From TrEMBL:
This is Putative manganese efflux pump MntP. The gene is mntP. It comes from Colwellia psychrerythraea (Vibrio psychroerythus). HAMAP family: MntP_pump (MF_01521). Keywords: Cell membrane, Ion transport, Manganese, Membrane, Transmembrane, Transmembrane helix, Transport. The keyword Manganese applies. It is found in: Cell membrane. InterPro entries: Mntp/YtaF (IPR003810), Put_MntP (IPR022929).
Length: 181
């Protein structure tokens, strides 16, 4: 269960970083309670996408069972590396002039694509995948809500650091999966 919580925190860091940026834009007049809407959107997609990755992973595990730790390692490693790279570049939310529901939906899906890939690694963790995805969704909900609050208070300096830490955590998890398998 510890691995699931660490995975949930690491995966939620990109949603946290984007939430900070969204809160900082102060361009959200069309979305009333921005923190709640962002948290629900990001939490929902971060919770659903790993199930898709898990089911896809279960479907191919029989064919590539001996390579499963390597596949999980590569997926988590590249997701972590992408998060680190993204933390060093400007975020998409800086280019958004108005936050609409459509923009929010696109951001929620974009920040959860890595959760779908990470869902494959759930085939290697001895935990109910639905409980794991619920935990991932709840943790992302909490971090997204907090991110909007931090962003509205002017805490954008934390934005890239959160994504960087999440990326490093995923790389560490990838190495752990490879070593323990």
């Amino acid at each position: 269960m510890t691995e699931v919580i660490i995975l949930a925190i690491a995966l939620s860091m990109d949603a946290f970083a984007v939430s900070i940026g969204l809160g900082a834009t102060k361009q959200h007049s069309k979305i009333a309670p921005l923190g709640l809407i962002v948290a629900l959107s990001f939490g929902f997609f971060q919770g659903v996408m790993p199930i898709i990755g898990y089911l896809g992973g279960k479907g191919i595990v029989g064919w590539v069972e001996s390579y499963t730790p390597w596949i999980a390692f590569l997926l988590l490693f590249f997701i972590g590396a992408k998060m680190i790279f993204d933390s060093l570049s400007e975020g998409i939310e800086e280019n958004i002039s108005k936050i609409t529901y459509r923009i929010l939906l696109i951001l929620a899906i974009a920040t959860s694509i890595d959760a779908m890939a990470a869902g494959f690694s759930l085939t290697l963790i001895p935990v109910n995948p639905f409980i794991a995805c619920f935990i991932i969704g709840v943790v992302t909900f909490a971090f997204s809500w907090l991110g909007v609050l931090v962003g509205t208070k002017g805490g954008t300096w934390l934005e890239s650091k959160a994504e960087f830490i999440g990326g490093v955590t995923l790389i560490i998890m990838a190495i752990k999966i490879l070593i323990t398998s």
